[in-house]
């Protein structure tokens, strides 16, 4: 149990990556506050953790609304006495090209992906400083934050911004004993998320066809699953990573390291 006695907040707890990370932290002993603007995602994730024998609380919260974020962090404090770990995972994926992107959609994607991470980090870090409790903050990025993807202008821009948000926040918080690191997932195998949704009592969803053939291009020959990100998040959250701050940990099956014209499956 690497996180026994710790309290974690995870945002964006759908049955896919956020749910996988929340369950992974709970399996290592953390009490987990599951936060999502969709109430079922918050509640069902918390219920799932409790069924597995863990401690959890589901809170509906829009991470772009500062009053809601402050209230959510306040409830986490009331329920568990403080917060040691924050995983900023809530995000809006996908988008359009720079030629097509409507301002309203751009603004919402930037608000959730960047401003939501800023607000959660601000309020959780303030609580950690007030309580004199060192902690670990993890920011979920994407390989699309490291590269220029066509047809995804808002997502690429916001995820790239998070890489340097992480470094700057790490510098602001270093003297308080708060570490801030990012974790870079890539195109994720969908099977685990579909199975988790079923385990949470939802009907089996159809696999949707993807525009890009990710599996053909991935060096290891297999795409990562949420549990792989969860293990990396446990590491970053734990004392094993006590000297690691301002870093990006890529859990991308080699995607970013790959020489661009190489097709591993060819
Ligand atoms: N799925 C992938 O292949 C992939 C790859 C790289 C990075 N990521 C990143 O991983 C994270 C999770 O992705 P996912 O695939 O599980 O997506 P998802 O859509 O299943 O989950 C995102 C969750 O964020 C929540 N959310 C959105 N706006 C919110 C808001 N304003 N306040 C609170 N919650 C809000 C949604 O309700 C949803 O539950 C995202 O940050 C995404 O960018 C995903």
Describe this structure in words.
This protein is of the alpha/beta class and 266 residues long. The protein has helices at residues 17-27, 39-51, 66-80, 103-131, 153-173, 191-199, 214-217, 226-237; strands spanning 7-11, 31-36, 56-60, 85-88, 135-140, 178-184, 248-250. Strand 5 (135-140), helix 5 and strand 6 (178-184) form a beta-alpha-beta unit. Helix 1 packs across helix 8, helix 3 packs parallel to helix 4 (103-131) and helix 4 (103-131) packs parallel to helix 5 (153-173). The termini are far apart. The relative contact order is 0.15. The chain binds nicotinamide-adenine-dinucleotide. Nicotinamide-adenine-dinucleotide (NAD) is lined by residues 11-12, 14, 16-18, 36-38, 41, 62-64, 89-93, 112, 116, 140, 142, 185-188.
User: How many helix segments?
Assistant: 8
What is the straight-line distance between the termini? 42 Å
Mean of pLDDT: 98
Give helix % range. Answer: 40-55%
Spatial sequence of strands, sheet with the most strands = 3-2-1-4-5-6-7
Q: Tell me the β content.
A: 5-15%
Element-by-element helix/strand order: EHEHEHEHEHEHHHE
| Backbone structural class | alpha/beta
* Radius of gyration from the alpha-carbon trace, in angstroms: 18 Å
Small molecules (ligands, ions, cofactors) in the structure:
nicotinamide-adenine-dinucleotide
How many strands, which pairing sense, and closed or not: the largest β-sheet? 7 strands, parallel
């Amino acid at each position: 149990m690497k996180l026994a006695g710790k309290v974690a907040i995870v945002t964006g707890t759908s049955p896919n990556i956020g749910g996988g990370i929340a369950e992974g932290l709970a399996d290592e002993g953390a009490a987990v506050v599951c936060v999502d603007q969709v109430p079922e995602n918050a509640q069902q994730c918390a219920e799932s953790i409790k069924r597995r024998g863990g401690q959890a609380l589901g809170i509906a919260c829009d991470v772009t609304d500062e009053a809601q974020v402050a209230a959510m962090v306040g409830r986490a404090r009331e329920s568990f006495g403080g917060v040691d770990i924050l995983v900023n995972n809530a995000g809006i994926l996908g988008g359009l090209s720079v030629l097509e992107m409507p301002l309203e959609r751009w603004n919402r994607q930037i608000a959730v992906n960047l401003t939501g991470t800023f607000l959660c980090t601000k309020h959780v870090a303030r609580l950690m400083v007030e309580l004199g409790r060192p902690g670990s903050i993890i920011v979920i990025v994407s390989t699309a934050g490291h590269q220029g993807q066509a047809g995804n202008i808002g997502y690429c821009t916001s995820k790239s911004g998070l890489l340097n948000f992480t470094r700057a926040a790490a510098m602001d918080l270093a003297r308080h004993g708060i570490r801030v690191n990012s974790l870079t997932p890539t195109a994720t195998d969908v099977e685990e998320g579909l199975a988790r949704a079923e385990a949470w009592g939802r009907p089996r969803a159809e696999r949707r066809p993807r525009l890009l053939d990710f599996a053909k291009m991935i060096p290891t020959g297999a795409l990562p699953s949420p549990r792989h990100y969860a293990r990396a998040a446990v590491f970053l959250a734990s004392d094993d990573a006590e000297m690691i701050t301002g870093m990006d940990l890529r859990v991308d099956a080699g995607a970013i390291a790959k020489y661009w014209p190489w097709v591993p499956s060819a």
